[in-house]
Design brief:
- The protein has ten helices and 16 strands.
- The chain has about 325 residues and is of the alpha/beta class.
- The chain has two domains: about 110 residues, translation initiation factor eif-2b, domain 1 (Four Helix Bundle (Hemerythrin (Met), subunit A), Up-down Bundle), CATH 1.20.120.420; about 200 residues, 3-Layer(aba) Sandwich (Rossmann fold).
């Protein structure tokens, strides 16, 4: 099933904030509900955000096609709902480029993007499984971070799509899913998807990753990305950089899997990317219970930057770029 889709003149998504306890489908019929779903992480993951942005423009075009200023405001709210992942702005811009034609043309463009992301997941799974099969034969023990499966795309996935393809081929021994504080996308979402796929996995606290690598419990690290800069710097969920450092110290491959739509040649390096800070509430409390002294603040970057020289390879739906061999994005 698609985790985001256009159904009967509205957007339907699996609510990622309800997992793993409940599988809830949200029906988004206004631009405001789409923006809220993006900001609350009911829909998240770079490719899924691109599709959400494009479908959001299609929804806005249908609702406000005869109100130019309101339509323009809606497009801008969608485009800026979250700042870091390049796919959201690209999806919005791609659909908005057809606003002068008709609402139907905008929807056709958004649906085309959805279909392209589905096809990209299939291609990434194949290319990534081929690469990891070469890097850590005969059966890989992988560590992954955050959530990069169908929930983060439309179907299939990026890094997790590669994991499942390796499992299908018999080339996967086990997976360690780091929990991904503070919102536990690994513990809640990746574990849910791995369980459904029948993959042998364990959940580990984020800080355990480098130690487990050093102790020989991991053969390679495979992660997704929210933006890949022109020099190969990778923007991904906070904690990725630490795993990359651990992998380098342990002499392990560190592989990034993301569609071409996540590669951003217009941004030279990770230093130029705005990193979203989601405020203190997610850090100073857990499940509505305060875990810090009253009045304590927090710094809460949602993403970090992994320098290109720590990345072994970038796998997209079109190519494998071996950064460790000097190949260029």
């Amino acid at each position: 099933m698609r985790t985001i889709d256009w159904v009967d003149d509205a957007i339907e998504i699996i609510d990622q904030t309800a997992l793993p306890d409940r599988t809830t489908v949200l029906r988004l019929s206004t631009v405001e509900t789409v923006v809220d779903a993006i900001r609350s992480l009911a829909v998240r993951g770079a490719p899924a955000l691109g599709v959400a942005g494009a479908l959001g423009v299609a929804l806005a075009a249908r609702l406000h096609h005869d109100e130019p200023q309101r339509l323009a405001d809606a497009v801008e709210r969608l485009r800026t709902a979250r700042p870091t992942a390049v796919n959201l702005a690209r999806g919005v811009d791609r659909a908005a480029a057809r606003l002068a034609e008709s609402p139907s043309a905008v929807l056709a463009e958004a649906v085309a993007l959805r279909d392209e992301e589905e096809a990209a997941s299939v291609a990434m799974a194949r290319l990534g499984a081929d690469l990891l099969g070469q890097l850590c034969p005969p059966r890989c023990r992988l560590l992954t971070h955050c959530n990069t499966g169908a929930l983060a795309t439309v179907t299939g996935g990026t890094a997790l799509g590669v994991v499942v393809e390796l499992h299908r081929r018999g080339g996967l021994e086990s997976v360690i899913a780091s929990e991904t504080r503070p919102l536990l996308q690994g513990a809640r979402l990746t574990a849910w998807e791995l369980d459904r796929a029948g993959v042998d996995f364990r959940v580990a606290v984020d800080g355990a990753g480098p130690f487990l690598m050093a102790r020989g419990r991991v053969d390679a690290v495979v992660v997704g990305a929210d933006r890949i800069c022109a020099n190969g710097d990778t923007i991904n969920k906070i904690g990725t950089y630490a795993h990359a450092l651990g992998a380098r110290r342990a002499g392990l491959p560190f592989v990034v899997v993301a569609p071409e739509s996540t590669v951003d040649p217009a941004t030279a390096t990770g230093a130029q990317v705005e990193i979203e800070d989601r405020g203190s509430a997610e850090v100073v409390s857990f499940a509505a219970a305060r875990t810090t002294p009253a009045g304590a603040g927090a710094v809460n970057p949602a993403f970090d930057v992994t320098p290109a020289d720590l990345v072994t390879a970038v796998v997209t739906d079109r190519r494998v770029i071996r950064l460790d061999r000097g190949e260029q994005i």
